[in-house]
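Researcher: Here's the sequence for the chain we discussed earlier.
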Amino acid sequence: MTLFNAMGPKPLAFLAIVFALGVACAQVDRDYDDLPTAGSGGADASGGKGGSQPGGGSGGRSPSGGAAGEIGQGGEGGAAGSAGESGAGGAGGAANGTLTVSLAGDGTGVVSSNVPGINCGTACSSEYELDSEVVLTAKAGAGSTFAGWAGSGCSGTGTCTVRVADKSEVKATFALATAYTLTVTKAGTGAGTVTSTPMGISCGTTCSQTVPSGTMVTLTAAVTGTGSVFSGWSGGGCTGTAACTVAVTMATQVTATFTCTGTTTLNYTGTITSFTVPSCATSLTIDAYGAQGGSAGSANLGGLGARMKGTFAVTGGASLKVLVGGKGPDASDTTQQGGGAGGGGTFVTNAANSPLVVAGGGGGAINNSVGMWFYSGLGGGITTSGLTDCSGTNPGGTAGGGGKTDTNAAYHPGTGGGGLTGNGVNNTVGSYGSYYTPGQAFINGGAGGLPGMCGTDTSCITGRPGGFGGGGAAGYTGGGGGGYSGGGAGHSSTTTMAPTVGCGGGGGSYNGGTAQTNTAGTRAGNGTVIFTW
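Model: Thanks. This is the structure I predict for it:
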C-alpha cells in the first residue's frame, strides 16, 4: 500500500487496466485450448462459432474449419464439441477385364482355360483380373484338326497365353481333317483275322476303314481254326508279329500273312488214338515208323521197324485213326523161351480203316543154346507182304493178312504177326500149358499175340506178348512183326527142341502217298508217327 499510495491515482488506474487485459488474454488462451467454446471446432462438420475475442475463433479440426469471428467483435464460445477425426477410407477393389474366345472353321473342337472360366464349347467368355495370365488349350473333335489361334498375341497350334486387358479376344479355328483309307490284305495258306483299334476293321469281312488324317490305328492279328500261324506284317511301317500301330497320313495298305504250317508227333500209347487234320490243311505229310522186335541177348537184336513217309491231299477237320506200334519184349532165357516177341506195326487210316500209311514192325530174335541158333530178327519190310521167317519156312501174310505160326507138338514157338485186316495164322499147340495166340489185326484192335498159361508143368517158363500193333508172341522161337501184312513166326522142328534158325520175319508196309520215302529196318524201340502240314 505504501507503494500504491506513493504512485498516485493515475498510475494506479493504468496498472488496473494492464491487469484486466492480462486476465482477459489468459482467459482467451485457456478457452481456445481447453474448452469446447469459442474458437474450438464442434464435433460436426462445421466448426464452432467464432470466438468472442476480436481475433475471431479459429477453425475446428474437421475438414471444414469454423467460421471466422466477426472482426472487432468478440464471438461467443460455440457450444459444439471439438471435431471428430474422420476414419480412413477402405482400399478400392482391383479392376477386371473380359476374355472372350470364339470358334471358327468347318471343324469341331473345344477351348479350355487353365483357370476356371473358359470351356468353349459352352462357356466362351469370362472375367479375369487385369494383367493376369490365362493359358488356353485347344482340342480338336473327331474328324477335325486344330488350325491355329488369332488375336491377343496368340498364333500357331500350341497353347495360347493371354495377358488379360480390358477386353481380350481370341479366335480358335478348327478344320475338317482330310480322310484316308487304311486297307488290310490277308495273304498265305493259313487262316486268321485282323481287327483294329479304334474299331472299324474286322477282316474277316471288313478289311478297310476310312479315318481322318493322322489317326493312329492299331492292328491285331489272330489265327482261326487249327494249324495256322501268323507269319507277320508288311506295309504301313508294320513288321514282326506283334500288334502294329499305323499312323494314317495317306492311303495305306497293310498285309497280314497267315501260314498253314505245323508238326504233330504221336508216340506209343498202347491204344488206337486219332488225329484231326488241321482246318487249314489241304496237304498232309505222314512219316510213320514201325516198332522194333524183341532182342535175344546183346548180340541178337530184334528186327528194326520200317519207315514209310508220304504226302496226301486232305480235307481240314477230317479224323484219322492212328496206332503207334510197341516194341516186342526181349527173350527171357536161352532155351525154353529163347525168342524175342514181334514188334508192332504203326498204322494211319481213315475212319473207315482204309490205310494211308502202315510201317511194319520187326521180327523177334533167337538165342537158343541147345540148337546153337543165334540170329537177329528180320526188320520191317517196305513191300505190302510180310516177311517169311529167317529159315524160309513160315511165310508172312499178304494183302493185309497175318503171318503163319508153326504147329510144334512139343514146345511153343513164337506166333505170327497180325496184318491190317487179318490176324496171324494158327495158334501154337505145344505139349504143356495152353496155346499161344498170334498177333491181332488192326481192324480187330491190333493187340499183340498172347502167351498161354504153363498149367501144372513146373518146368514151364511163360512166354512174352507181342508188341502192340499185331506183333506175334514170343516163345521157343521169335514172333513175327505186325504190319500191313504180318511177318511169319520163327520156325522150329516139329519133333525136337532144336529150332531151325528160329527168328521171326518183319511185318509188311503200305504207302498211299506221293513224294515217298520208304526205308526197311530202320527204327529201334517203339514206333512213332509225325504229321506235318
